[in-house]
Structures are given as C-alpha cells and as structure tokens.
Amino acid sequence: MRWIIGLLVLGAVAAGAIWGGTTWYSARENAGPKYRTVPVKRGTVVATISATGLVEPQELVDVGAQVAGQINSFGKDARGKPVDYNSPVEQDMILAEIDQSLYAADLASAQAQLAQDQAAIVRAQADLQQMQAKLNQAQRDWDRARKLGPGDALSQSAYDTYQANFETAQANVAVDQAAITQARATVDKDMATLNRAKQNIGYCTIRSPVKGVIIARRVNIGQTVVSSLNAPSLFLIAKDLTKMQLWVQVNEADIGSIHPGQPVTFTVDAFPGQAFHGTVARVRLDATMTQNVVTYTVEVDTDNADGKLLPYLTANAQFEVARHNGVWTVPNAALRWGPKPEMVAPDVRAAVEKHTALTLPATLPATTMAADDATPARLWYQDGEFLRPIPVTTGLTDGTVTEVTPQGSATLKEDMPIISGEVVDAAAPTESNPFTPRFGRH
Q1: Among the listed residues 34, 45, 33, 35, the one whose alpha carbon sits nearest the alpha carbon of residue 332
Q2: Range of the domain at 402
Q3: Could you tell me where the beta strands, DSSP code E, fall in 332-406?
Q4: What is the total count of domains within the chain?
Q5: Per residue in 159-193, pLDDT tens?
Q6: I want to staple 169 with a disulfide (CB 3.0 to 4.6 A). Which of 7, 135, 142, 298 is the partner?
Q7: What is the DSSP string of 69-120?
C-alpha cells in the first residue's frame, strides 16, 4: 500500500514539473516588449523666450517737500478719510500740512522790509523835489549873474558863488534821482523776497499733482522732513492702476528676438493658473551687467481693468517668438526615443542602422527653426511584433511638443500612436527557472 502512495506522489510531482516548465517556457516565448505611446495631433506650436520681471504702474509720481519742517497733519482723500496707503486722491487735493511758523515769520519780516523801503522811495522823491526847487532858485540867480557879469554892479566872487550854487544844485538833483532809482530797486528785491516767503508758505501745504492712488506714504505726523539738494519723498502716487507695465530683464542672447508690439503672456504667483497678456512697448538701451551677465529691461504694457495685478508682483513672462498653426505635433519624448536594433523590422533594419546619426539632442531648445534649419529625425510605430520608422523633419518647438513634417512618402494620421518609451513590467515573468530555490522566502 505504501508503495502505491509513493508512486502517486512521484507522478504528481512529475506532472507539476512538466506543467510548470511548459508554462515558464511559454511565458518566455510570449513575453515581448511593451511600449508607451503618444498620439500625433494637429495643433499650434508657439516658440517663446522666458524671462522674469516686476509688475509696475505705467506712470508713478513721487511727491516731495520743497521746505523743511514738521508734519502737522494729513489731508482727506476722495473718500473723506485721512490720506494713507491706497487712498484715492484728486489733483490739487491736500495730502499733508507742514508747520509753517518759521515761514510765517519770514513772510512778516519781508512785508515789513518792503513797507520800509517803499517809504524810502517816498522820502527820496520828496528830497528830489526839494533839490529841484533849490536848483530852480540857483538857476535864476545864475541867469541874473550872467546878465550882469563881473564888474562894478557884481563882484567877481559873487559871480563865482552863483555859478557854484547852480552847479551844486544840479549835482544834488542827480544824486536824489539816483537815490530814487536805488530805492525802487530795493523795493523790487523786497518784492522778490516777499514772493519767496509766500511761496514757502504755500509749499507747507503738500498737494497732489495728479489724480491717482497713493502707493506709499513715507512720513508720519510729527516727523520732521529736511529739504536739501534733493526733495525728500513723502508720497508715491500711481496715476492709473488700470494700466500696468512689466519690467522684464531679458538676456542679451535673446534680446535680438524682442521687438515692440510683440505679444507676451505672463503669470504671477498670486493667481496660479491664470494667464495675463500684454505687448512689448519698448526695449531700454541702458543694459545692466550682473556677474558678467548682460540683461536689457523690456517694458511690456498690459491691461488691468479688473484690478487684479498689484504693483511689484513678480511675473514670469513668455515672449512669443513664432507661432505655427495646424501643424503635426508630437511630444519631445517621442523624438528622443530610439529602439534597439532587434526591435526594428528586419526589412528596414539595415537602412535604419546605416542612418543612426538621424537623432535629436537630449534637450530640444524652445527656439524658432527656419525651413532650411529643419532637423531630420524619426518617429516609431509598432507593426506587429516589430517597429517601423517614420522619417520626419522637426520644426518649431515650445520645449514640450515639436512640429514635425513627414519626409518623402511617409504619412501621419490624427491620433496615430507613436512610441515614446518602453514599459518595464514588474509583473512580467523573469528568465529564472521555476525550480531554482528561492532564498530568504518562507
């Protein structure tokens, strides 16, 4: 009985070995490479240049103080609230008041000096009238003396005296006329000093030169501003926040592709996923160098009617260099991938190996390619158990997808599956013998 049971056990083991071996070899024969595929699509390819910059108001006005003094108070904004950050203001609206006591004293002194010098003119005019009267008397005496002449009726000394009195009176009149001219010049100087004092009083009231929104308030009540060669900045006003600019730093290698009117798309971290649009306004010529890298500032105008864009947000800009619509596009991974020789169909294997140089670099630059600069490449599709190439030339790329054009008689179809890589199946059977002992497992 025992030997019968032993025969049955041996038979079962043998049958299992035969079945397991058959399954293993069958799995080895049926196991083939699996591929990742991507579809060919008709679409639009846009080549861009990337750069970063800041969102800036199109026109900023820096309001300063032309006199020194202590800030006494702030004015009221368009909403009736004290002037502060984000306050809307109208043109000529009072922003702040500076203590004007010193300038009021200067004004009073200038007014007093003017009155004094105006009185000096009146006195000089009276002196002139007096000297004119003396001149008239001396003129009459001299006329009579000349008629008589020196002789028995008029001594020589008396004659000379009349002549001297007349000439002295003439000189005195000239002196008084000069005094009046000098007094009038002094009054003109006093008027200038008075006007300056009045102007300084006016400067104590800081007014908004434009209609806009206050971006920054740089003083507080009680703070003393000191005016020297440069007027201290008190307020920064943006004239119109519905129109903004990007100041983008563009590398010198890319600046040749930037021109006014060029479309720009940009994003800001404050609104992820939302794209904003603008156009290049101008390229500034004052380049800057940082760590031996030369960059140019490019101004990009953009509409901000909805008020989402805030001043000084960081922007990631894409300058549109070229756009091709309705072209065949494939992901760049499909252009970079190539099969092993044994994967290629036998009838084209020799031709493929002969032209193995037709491959793209590992990284495709997102720049414009002219027609005569098109790069030959291959796409691959599965035909049964082998792969076949599709010769193409590459065109424009955006760094993710690339424009391709079939060469010769090759054709592409919408959604045609193109191989972009080989799938490594972790569950696929390995080439180990099922009867090999497995160590470390129970």
Answers
A1: 45
A2: 31-45+326-423
A3: 375-383, 386-397, 401-406
A4: 4
A5: 888 889 888 988 988 988 898 899 899 999 999 99
A6: 135
A7: EEEEEE-B-TTSSBP-TT-EE-TT-EEEEE--HHHHHHHHHHHHHHHHHHHH
The tokens describing 299, both together, are 């101004």
**Global pTM?**
0.65
Give the chain's residues under pLDDT 70: 1-32, 152, 227-231, 355-374, 425-442
> Does some domain include residue 37?
yes
- Looking at residue 363, its pLDDT comes to 42
| Single-letter amino acid code for the residue at 134 | K
* Whole-Å CA distances, 117 to 41, 176, 189: 93, 15, 10
Report the C-alpha gap between 391 and 73 in whole angstroms. 77
Q: Are residues 216 and 287 in the same domain?
A: no
Q: In what order do the strands lie in the sheet with 88-89?
A: 60-64, 233-238, 212-217, 88-89
CA angle 290, 294, 297 (to 5 degrees): 100
If asked whether residues 264 and 295 sit together in one domain, one would say yes
Alpha-carbon distances of 269 from 52, 172, 266, 281, 335, rounded to whole Å: 12, 86, 10, 23, 33
Q: Which residues pair with 50 in a beta bridge?
A: 318
Pair 128, 177: CB distance under 8 Å: yes
